[in-house]
Structures are given as C-alpha cells and as structure tokens.
Amino acid sequence: MFVSDVFSLENLGHLVVLLFLQAVLGFDNLLYISIESKRAPEESQASVRRNGILIAIALRVVLLLTIMKLISMLEAPFFEVSIPGVIEGAFTFSVIVFLFGGVFLMYTAVKEISHLLSLHDLEVHSDKDSSTKSAGQVIATIVLMNLIFSFDSILSALAITDVFVVLATAIIVSGLMMLLLADMVSEFIKKNRKYEVLGLFILLIVGVVLLGEGGHAAHLSLFGFHIEPLAKSTFYFSIAVLVLVDVLQSGYQRKLDVMRAHNQGPHS
User: Fold this and answer.
1) Is the pLDDT of residue 124 over 50?
2) 156 and 118 fall within a common domain
3) Are 142 and 54 in contact (CB under 8 A)?
4) What residue numbers bound the domain in which 85 lies?
5) Is this structure's pTM higher than 0.70?
6) In this structure, what DSSP letter does residue 231 have?
7) Which of 27, 33, 83, 210 could form a disulfide with 102 if both were Cys (CB 3.0 to 4.6 A apart)?
8) How far apart are CA 245 and CA 137, in angstroms?
C-alpha cells in the first residue's frame, strides 16, 4: 500500500513540479557554486564542487525532515488572536512556518525581480574578490550558502506536498543535477535569463499557496472573510499558463527579430 501511495499519479505529478521548481530556484545557487569553487586550488576545484554539493544534499534532507517533524510534534497553538470583525485565528508552529514562509518567498521573489530589472551583472563582483582559499574553506562556504539558498526551495516544496519520500527525492535529484551542471550554469543563465524570471514568478505563486495553507490551518479570518487554501488544480493551471505564455512570447520574439533583421537588411 505504501509503495502504491508513493508512486501514485498525484505524487508523480508533484515530483515533476518539484524537480522543475528546485531546478529553477537553484540557478542562483549553481552560479554561486561555480564562482566560489574557483577560489580553491585549481587541482581541487572539481572535488570541492562535488564534495560541497554532496554534503549540502545530505544536510538539506536532514533540514527537511527536521522541519516536518517539528510541524507534526508542535500541533498545539502557540497563541490565539481574536479581534471580532478584524482578525481571528490560532497560530501553531506549522501555521507560523507557512505564513512566514509565504511572506519570505514573496519578498524574495519581488526582491530578485527588482534586482533583475536593475540589470546588474550577476558576475560583477566575481573578479574583484578572487583570493585563493583552501579546499576545506571553500567546501564549508558552499555547504553553508547551499543551506541558505535551500530554505526557500524547502518551504516551496512543503506548499506542494507533505510526502517525505517525494520531497527527499526531489532534493536528491536536484542536488545530483547540480553536480552535473555547476560548471555550465553561468553561461546558460546568461543566454536563458527568461527561465530565472519564470521561476521567480512561480515562486510568487508558491508564496500565495503557503499563505493560503497557513491561513486555512489557523482558521484565520480577516475582516470576516475566511482564508481558504489555493486548490492544487489552480496551482498547476497557473504554472501551465506561465510556461505557455513564456513559450509563446519566446516564439513571437524570435519572429519579431527575424522580421526586423529582414527589414533592416537592404539598408545596411
């Protein structure tokens, strides 16, 4: 029964979305790893990337398990708020995690979108601080930053499903993809920035999902309106629309570029 539950169509769908989300949200992490590893001795750079990412994957799974255990153990409300007609609700550990996570993810997405609009070069500081570090120092830095970067992805994953096997599989597979892509990601992002933007807007939606889940679990009502969770079907539909718009926009942009090149050709 357990195996059939884990490999259900719903969980497989969750896994596909999680893998995509983990990959997109991991772009900045991969870029950091590729830059930071260059500070290690040249002969150690490959092993530094490999060991740093492997340790970080294991710690991510531990962090995920810890958060899930705390959510299940601390079910009693920490405090309640009751201002009739304004706000009412009971706040447990899981509610606080979801509400904080939703706000954190939305803030992160808006901040990163603003950063992208400012057109700052992602590698602008990479050449200014190129001091060599030992392999151990670089590995420790990569592991620490990987955990920091993973916080938003773990919160995002918990908004989609609470099946530990599915969540852990997504973390492990995405971590293994980091091993394969760490050296290529910097150049890829330069040429495909649209995927980073797409991931940030998905992050915004996940933040809304977390707020809905937290508000529903708290039986939260604001000004007499009860907070309801966003249906998974609506979540998937929103992602599908975003991806479709991105694909159509890319195709349309290519057509415009071809038309402009054709119209300007005779005058050049």
Assistant:
1) no
2) yes
3) no
4) 2-230
5) no
6) P
7) 210
8) 43
